[in-house]
Design brief:
The complex is a heterodimer of chains A (about 300) and B (about 500). Chain A has about 300 residues and is an alpha/beta fold. In chain A, about 35% of the residues lie in helices and about 15% in strands. The termini of chain A are far apart. Helix content of chain B is about 20%, strand content about 30%. In chain B, the strands form five sheets. In chain B, strands 7, 8, 9, 11, 12, 13, 15 and 16 form an eight-stranded antiparallel sheet that branches. The longest helix of chain B is centred in the last third of the chain and has 20 residues. The N and C termini of chain B lie far apart (about 70 Å). Classes of the chains: A alpha/beta (about 300), B alpha+beta (about 500).
């Protein structure tokens, strides 16, 4: 073994350290599982951190009911394969009111179907800490995020009340009403996530690989029609194209990219050579300047 | 518009599955006026794997801000809306970029005096610091203050970037004068390496390419220097330490002490000791999910199975049997006050080491450090951004080293018991077992706790953790009531 470790070795060890600290310091943690590639890496690291035990916390999936069908199938298989506990939570109230991703603005939809149910679920089960796959390289307000990110009562994020983090010392002592988001992948980049998936040979949702799928172009973005719930506008006729996704979310809000990268090796090669950042493909973040910062203050992950 | 097209590494898409040769954590300190954000923005623009849409965003925003004369490189750095509006950097921002061989982590911290704490916490993560000065102004009070903070938190390598050389007509004389001041300054501290480089961030001179304006400068340009610095030194060095994070079991006969090796290395068969309990054992197995290891080195996360089941729990520091950490309840320390609420001797505090959390009986502030003169002034108070020398008495013993001996086990946070806030971060300058009780110290013993408060607790791992928790909280309450207390379990 060489004397030096690669940057992935260092990132992996750091994430394992964070998982073990959080599990020891918090009373009732949960892992936010959103099924995508970051969640896949997050879960793999959690398994490593506690092996030979299973991770000492359940998975929580906030289901908007608009996830790709392939995502749900992958979620169920993963949970079964590793024998994990899964909690699925949906904002039933929002569902009844018919809040959907095409009649409502991305900010309203995200708040009602993602942010609100996340808060509901954390309160319902009394979780005091939630692991998430957020990375500092994703967006400028994330660039200032802590590893232990504190939320005051009501799950609000106040950038000015965050605790300084020095060296590798992690302080998880909660103040009254506080909960924490824990980010073991803080120092990873999108490219690292793919490099690591390749290195560890991890299964990911097939949507990350190119295949011929029914697509329409709306507002300049390439959408894959996953079921018949999205009303098509005049002139929109789904066309079969070879596409894949760089990021996964609710299907009417997640843009695909034209690609022929159909296996892990070519996806990694394409990602490492990519010239645009991944959140280009997420329609909700382009809503307005500082969108992410505002969403986080309201309790978004 | 030539500035726009400088060394853009168009086609350096790294090979498939490439793992980079380590990570270099780079702190930038200086103020907005010195052009700090511009310097780092320029480095990212010229040398990194920025995405096209990020470049487009910068070009688009720049046209509004600078009239389109050149990209506003600083936009790559400044994050939060509030900060953009105020035009200053308040918090620490993290940026990541890869050159062909190496991962760089840029830790951008604020330079203003009222943000000493942010800079100290940013610096604590750094392998190297770039200190920035304006060539017209030279070394300022602020530069001295920054050097002192870097030294306190353990940064060993510093680079002085003498910026805006274009505004002093690329004067060698001017640069040499500043360089001489810098040498004199750095000699006062314990830096391993200190170098000055003349740059112009706006023009990209000596940032990621050699400047054509300063033929008299024969040293490396900034990026060249940064790529030469060894990545975080994780070769086995120093004595073995591993703070225990948790104990893992497989439900059969496996009991693994889980943690990350914080210094040195450990091999199967080595004899280890838990200094807190005084017990020793041999390493039977070094386990990870991937495979068992023969040897675990600094930075590796593992689970150690021992040949005898010694009673070790979270908070212990496993060490080589022939080189133990100090078991101490009395610490001398230098600390940075991080929180808005000043030190209050009547408040309850905890001390957090890497994996231990112990109640503090008392903190005595002895003096404050004047960061500009480096003189020490007697003081009993301590508030935000102050750097203090303090004596700390703990409610029970912890396993620590001095910071000079071991940077990993010589650090701590002070935590407010009520709000949970991290109110101070510090380094240990001396550690001892403390004087014997002066008769006024109340001994909180296992027997006392077992009689009542903890009589519902058994012998399981979880119950023992709960026992410790109740002991700590009880000590804090007694302390709040004015009782000097020591936990003896």
């Amino acid at each position: 073994m060489s004397a030096q470790f690669s940057h992935l070795d260092m990132l992996e060890a750091e994430a394992i350290f964070i998982f073990r600290e959080a599990a020891a310091q918090f009373r009732k943690p949960v892992l936010m599982y959103s099924i995508g590639k970051d969640s896949t890496v997050l879960l793999h690291l959690a398994r490593k951190a506690f092996w030979p035990q299973k991770p000492p916390f359940p998975l929580l999936h906030i289901d908007t009911t608009w996830k790709f069908r392939d995502m749900i199938a992958f979620r169920n298989k993963t949970v079964a394969d590793f024998g994990l506990d899964l909690i699925v939570h949906t904002n039933e109230d929002g569902l009844k009111k018919g809040i959907n991703p095409y009649d409502y603005s991305p900010s309203v939809y995200t708040d009602v179907m993602k942010t609100q149910p996340l808060k509901q679920a954390l309160d319902k089960y009394g979780f005091d800490a939630a692991f998430g796959g957020a990375r500092r390289d994703e967006e400028s307000s994330r660039a200032k995020e802590r590893v232990f990110s504190f939320r005051s009562a009501g799950h609000r994020w106040d950038p000015r009340r965050q605790r300084p983090e020095m060296w590798n010392l992690l302080n998880g002592r909660l103040g009254p009403g506080e909960t924490v988001r824990v980010f073991p992948l803080s120092n990873w980049t999108e490219r690292d996530v793919w490099r690591y998936i390749a290195r560890e040979n991890l299964d990911v949702v097939p949507l990350y690989f190119a295949a011929r799928r029914p697509t329409i172009v709306r507002n300049g973005q390439l959408l894959v029609v996953d079921d018949d719930r999205l009303p098509l506008q005049p002139g929109e006729v789904p066309q079969m194209k070879s596409v894949r996704f760089r990021t996964l979310g609710c299907w009417p809000l997640t843009a695909a990219v034209p690609s022929t990268a159909a296996d892990l090796e070519s996806v990694v090669a394409e990602t490492l050579g990519a010239r645009t950042s991944e959140r280009q493909g997420r329609l909700i973040d382009h809503d307005q300047t500082g969108a992410m910062e505002r969403k986080k203050q309201e309790g978004y992950f | 518009m030539t500035a726009l097209t400088a060394v853009r590494r168009e086609d350096v898409a790294p090979a498939f599955n490439q793992e980079l040769n380590g990570i270099l954590h780079l702190l930038t300190c200086g103020s907005v006026d010195d052009g700090k954000s511009t310097l780092i923005g320029r480095l990212l623009w010229d040398a990194s794997d920025l995405y096209d849409d990020q470049r487009e965003t910068i070009n688009r925003s720049s046209n509004a801000a600078t009239g389109g004369a050149h990209p506003d490189f600083s936009l790559l750095l400044d994050g939060l809306v509030a900060e953009r509006e105020q035009g200053i950097t308040i918090d620490i921002a993290w940026r990541y970029f890869d050159t062909e061989r190496r991962r760089f982590v840029v830790i951008d911290s604020p330079g203003h005096e009222q943000y000493t704490r942010n800079m100290a916490s940013g610096a604590s993560h750094a392998d190297v610091a770039i200190m920035l000065v304006d060539a017209r102004a030279g070394i300022k009070r602020q530069t001295r203050r920054h050097a002192a903070i870097l030294d306190i938190v353990g940064v060993k390598r510093v680079v002085l970037a003498v910026n805006k050389m274009d505004l002093v007509d690329w004067s060698q004389e001017r640069f040499r004068a500043i360089e001489a001041d810098f040498r004199e300054l750095t000699l006062r501290f314990g830096f391993r390496e200190a170098i000055a480089i003349p740059v112009s961030a706006v023009g990209g001179d000596n940032v990621a390419t050699k400047s054509e304006h300063m033929p008299w400068y024969t040293g490396p340009h900034l990026l060249e220097h940064l790529e030469r610095i060894p990545s975080r030194d994780i070769s086995p060095r120093g004595s073995f330490r591993m703070p225990v994070q948790t104990v893992l079991r497989d439900g059969l006969d496996f009991r693994g002490l889980a943690g990350t090796v914080s210094s040195g290395c450990i091999s199967v068969g080595d004899r280890i000791t838990d200094a807190l309990s005084g017990q020793s054992a041999h390493v039977l197995r070094i386990a990870t999910m991937d495979r068992d290891l023969e040897i675990a080195k600094q930075g590796q996360a593992v689970a150690l199975q021992l040949d005898t089941d010694i009673d070790v729990a979270r908070g212990a520091v496993i060490s080589a049997a022939d080189n133990l950490p100090t078991v101490a309840s009395q610490l001398e320390a230098r600390l940075v006050w991080l929180w808005e609420t000043p030190f209050d001797p009547s408040n309850g505090y905890f001390l957090r080491t890497v994996t231990d959390l112990a109640p503090i009986s008392s903190i005595t502030i002895n003096s404050l450090l004047d960061l500009e003169t480096l003189a020490v002034q007697p003081s009993e108070v301590c508030a935000v951004n102050d750097i203090a020398n303090a004596s700390i008495t703990l409610g029970r013993e912890v396993a620590v080293d001095t910071f000079a001996d071991n940077q990993q086990t010589g650090i701590f946070l002070v935590i407010d018991a009520l709000t949970g806030a991290s109110v101070a971060g510090g380094v240990i300058t001396a550690a001892s077992n403390g004087a014997a009780g002066d008769g006024k110290t109340f001994k909180l013993t296992r027997e006392l706790l077992e009689r009542g408060l903890c009589r519902d607790l058994g012998d399981s791992e979880e119950d023992r953790r709960e026992f410790q928790r109740r002991a700590s909280e009880t000590a804090l309450l007694l302390h709040a009531a004015g009782v000097q207390v020591k936990i003896e379990l």
